[in-house]
């Protein structure tokens, strides 16, 4: 097994922190007619926190999880998204995401025991998804102006508060609290494309482990002569300027061994893996793990040596550490053969009962529900003429349209794809055509009801996005 076959690659958004937007009154009433067992009711019924106040988007404020946040020009969270806050699928007993989380916890609990005989890693899976932009970006050394901060990629309550885009928004706070080894799981929110593997709410799990000088070198011959840090060093592709090469190589080895054991535990001992170089603002060096699954290489997690500046800001300036992050949906879809990410939000008993097993390690192969036929409708429109809005932001992005479709069509929409991009040869005006595929997960849709939804999308696209329809 080759652990060091590196290729240059940009980190995908289902790992560690990353990277992934508008004050507008979107239409959203039709979903309840077509999805009577939708998430809003099911979340209240199944939440591990008991009855929670209903989220409300008012004229001047947004209320979520019992707190009120003032609105401003950055507010872009929608009612459909707020319905998901507090659902905590990863904490619902025998939900597939819960099963994956519990399996990872069980592995770490059994494999890493502290000197007191207790598990080395603590677990945190109930932290609020409402965070400050400072937590989500600045604490992770993501600079102002970085593309990951874009309003078009995130759900903002206001300029300083948002729904976390990654669980690493809590990383510095937990280190500052004195934790040296922990797992963190939770729901994260990003505006993104719409298809079978992308959803605006998904779930991450990450791990962090820190080492003191004694902990890292205790098993190394003449380890007392070695140090985590050096003065006057320089930053190279292999290390940060403040770290010694010996320390980084030991931390990197421990990180890769830990993760190799984890994925082998999840996927099987004969798993073929490879490591890929990548970049994050918050780790260096950084790696992505890919596994050979069903004949293809598939990215499953990202990791790296934590930036020392991050640890210094958290009061752990005398330690060196690693961090990793993975997407629970990605693992569950592969391990349980779940074909559509929307199924994780289904309350269909035919789906849920398949995961009520007595042993969390019991193999499960999801048996597909009846595949109801899809219906598709196209929508074409001219884009706004102005390239930039008065506020200096792009006046139209694809994510704006995806979010509009999602806000109106909800989980009736299986996929949205750009099928044509046309520029008029004389006027220079641009036109786009999108194909929207509608499919209910639990019954057959009629073209008549789909057309009602589609017409609302057409009307909202013109009124909310400033496009000119070619309907």
Tell me the overall shape: globular
Number of strands: 17
Classify the secondary structure makeup into a structural class: alpha+beta
Encode the helix/strand succession as letters: HHEEEHHEEHEEHEEHHEEEHEHHEHEEHE
Beta-strand proportion: 15-25%
Number of helical regions = 13
Overall helicity: 25-40%
Strand order of the largest sheet: 4-8-9-13-12-11-10
Distance between the termini: 56 Å
Query: How many whole angstroms does the radius of gyration measure?
Result: 23 Å
Mean pLDDT: 86
Largest sheet: 7 strands, mixed
Spans where pLDDT lies below 50 across 5 or more residues: 1-51, 388-393
Per-chain topology:
Elements: H1 31-34, H2 39-46, E1 56-57, E2 61-64, E3 67-70, H3 79-82, H4 96-111, E4 122-124, E5 130-132, H5 133-136, E6 156-158, E7 161-163, H6 171-176, E8 181-189, E9 201-211, H7 213-217, H8 245-267, E10 273-278, E11 283-293, E12 296-306, H9 308-313, E13 320-327, H10 328-335, H11 349-352, E14 375-382, H12 398-409, E15 413-423, E16 430-438, H13 447-465, E17 468-469
Parallel strand pairs: 4-8
Antiparallel strand pairs: 1-2, 2-3, 5-7, 6-7, 8-9, 9-13, 10-11, 11-12, 12-13, 14-16, 14-17, 15-16
């Amino acid at each position: 097994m080759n652990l060091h076959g590196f290729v240059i690659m940009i980190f995908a958004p289902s790992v560690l922190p990353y990277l992934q937007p508008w004050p507008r009154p979107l239409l959203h009433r039709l979903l309840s007619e077509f999805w009577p067992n939708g998430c809003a009711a099911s979340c209240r019924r199944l939440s591990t926190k008991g009855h929670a106040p209903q989220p409300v988007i008012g004229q001047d404020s947004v209320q979520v999880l019992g707190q009120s946040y003032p609105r401003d020009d950055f507010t872009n969270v929608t009612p459909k998204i707020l319905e998901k806050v507090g659902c905590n699928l990863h904490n619902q007993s025998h939900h597939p995401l819960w099963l994956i989380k519990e399996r990872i916890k069980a592995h770490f609990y059994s494999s890493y025991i502290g000197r007191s005989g207790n598990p080395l890693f603590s677990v945190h899976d109930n932290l609020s998804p409402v965070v400050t932009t400072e937590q989500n970006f600045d604490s992770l050394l993501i600079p102002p102006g970085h593309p990951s901060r874009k309003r078009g990629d995130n759900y903002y309550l206001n300029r300083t508060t948002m729904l976390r885009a990654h669980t690493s928004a809590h990383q510095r706070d937990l280190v500052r609290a004195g934790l040296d080894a922990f797992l963190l799981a939770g729901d994260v929110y990003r505006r993104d494309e719409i298809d079978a593997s992308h959803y605006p709410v998904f779930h991450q799990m990450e791990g962090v482990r820190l080492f003191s000088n004694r902990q890292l070198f205790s098993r190394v011959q003449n380890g007392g002569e070695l140090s985590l840090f050096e003065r006057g060093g320089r930053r190279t592709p292999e290390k940060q300027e403040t770290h010694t090469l010996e320390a980084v190589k030991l931390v990197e080895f421990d990180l890769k061994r830990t993760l190799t054991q984890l994925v082998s535990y999840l996927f099987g001992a004969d798993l073929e893996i490879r490591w890929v170089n990548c970049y994050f603002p918050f780790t260096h060096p950084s790696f992505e793990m890919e596994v050979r699954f069903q004949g293809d290489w598939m990215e499953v997690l990202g990791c790296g040596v934590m930036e020392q500046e991050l640890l210094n800001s958290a009061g752990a300036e005398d330690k060196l550490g690693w961090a990793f992050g993975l997407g629970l949906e990605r693992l569950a879809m592969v391990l349980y053969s779940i074909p559509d990410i929307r199924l994780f939000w289904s309350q269909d008993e035919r789906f849920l009962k398949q995961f009520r097993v007595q042993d969390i390690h019991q193999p499960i192969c999801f048996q597909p529900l009846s595949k109801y036929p899809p219906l598709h409708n196209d929508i074409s429109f001219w884009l706004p003429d102005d390239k930039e809005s008065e506020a200096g932001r792009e006046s139209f992005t694809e994510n704006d349209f995806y979010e509009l479709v999602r806000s109106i069509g909800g989980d009736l929409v299986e996929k949205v794809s750009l099928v044509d991009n046309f520029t008029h040869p004389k006027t220079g005006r641009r036109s786009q055509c999108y194909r929207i595929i509608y499919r209910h997960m639990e019954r057959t849709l009629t073209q008549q009801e789909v057309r009602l939804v589609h017409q609302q999308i057409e009307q909202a696209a013109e009124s909310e996005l400033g496009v000119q329809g070619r309907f």
